[in-house]
Amino acid sequence: ELRARLVQYVRVRATLDRLARGEEADYDAPAERAFDPERLTMGFARRLATYKRLHLLERGLPRSLGLLRGPHSIQFLLAGKAHPSDDEAKRVVQALFHVRHAPHVGERIAYLHDYDMHMAQVLVGGCDVWMNVPRPPMEASGTSGMKAAMNGVLNVSVLDGWWLEDHDGTHGWAIPGDEDPDHEAQDARDAEALLDLLEHEIIPLFYERDADGIPRGWMQRVKASIRVAG
Questions:
Q1: Which of 2, 40, 55, 128 has the CA that lies 20 to 30 A from 151?
Q2: pTM of this prediction?
């Protein structure tokens, strides 16, 4: 029910945002029918500081785009604001828009403008997975992931900040939090770890249903998320 509410919200907001940006019709139109209330929905919404590494989504791009295809695929919501003086963070967002015309991106990925508390409430209620991939050891707290966890959303996050303290393997997934002065190597390694988790663990578990259509394994983690993180 919460995911369906989120999908309806996204269809309206994404359409308005794309029209406001003056996007081409072939990118505007998919927003009206974007997203599926039955599809695995991932969220990434926060202050877009560079160390948050939103750019990890661009690494291994063919493999990332492959996750948008087929009946067992994902849909992705992005929202956030860069500090007015953080030009590098702005360039990260701009780079993501370069792939907006790739197959399935228009109806599977949305970047929502003007991230605020109301939008955050809809996102942390309706997403299935909350992604947080800061560069270790830069994470101060990670409060969006805490709010998501209290709504039964499962975190996939670097072992840093609160997730390092809370993760026990029962209610989400972890990317190693090893420090590395070679940021290029670190980003490549962590991007691959994220894609491995999505392909081999997160997506299969979400779509694994019993005879009644209930994802039992997923729901075990949802309950553990509320219990352990709470």
A1: 55
A2: 0.89
